[in-house]
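User: Need the bound-state model for 2'-O-acetyl adenosine-5-diphosphoribose:
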Amino acid sequence: MKRVVVFTGAGISAESGIRTFRDSGGLWDEYPIEEVATPQAWSKNPALVLQFYNLRREQVANARPNAAHYALEELRSVFELHIITQNIDDLHERAGSTNVLHLHGEIRKARSTVNPDHVVELSGNLINVGDTCPLGSQLRPHIVWFGESVPAMDQAIDLVSTADLFLVVGTSLAVYPAASLVYHIPENAKAWLIDPNPQLPAGLSGYSILAKTACEGVPELVNHLLTDHVF
Ligand code: OAD
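Assistant: Bound-state model below.
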């Protein structure tokens, strides 16, 4: 079975009503990164950080997977499918995907501030100041903040460097190390970028570009891969 690796960003969830970060009106316009998404922000004002992610969690809970999330799942009938996402939402999983690697964490989970391996699934939408792990430490969102390392990066590189087909969907490729994945495809792999405003690094070859939204471009490409027997 050929291996398809899909690398997604905020754009795949845009048509589910979840705001992207860097488009005009994106989240980082309203909330400065350094106030809500860094270890320094957490030290300075944990209540503000928790409020920011509580809002994100509520929006994710009210969103539904879209045609792009579902179309990817169809690939599983003929390919070995792996999804690497920068998204903290669970829309890939809710569309039925199982092999999902979250590079930047998961909004539905919290973790201990003293033991990063102690991760818990949240039952509601809120983490409040005073909510503690069984070790007695304040719970924090299970999110990779700016300035923190990306523990799943090595696993992601391994997946991309063994892909037969690589699909990149809805990402500005502005945040490293995640964005560096585009450099790791094998020489003979086929690769596509689907994004209405595609921003591939200059000089990077081997990619076909579909300048479309995820809900247009992903079902179209999936249909092409399935009907043209690329497998
Ligand atoms: P960005 O907000 O940087 O980029 C969103 C991308 O989605 C842009 O390239 C848009 O053109 C594209 N887009 C917008 N609408 C779309 C649609 N309907 N269909 C397809 N694409 C669409 O988001 P990311 O690249 O995901 O990290 O951002 C990467 C990381 O930066 C995030 O994981 C987050 C953020 O800061 C952390 O919080 C650590």
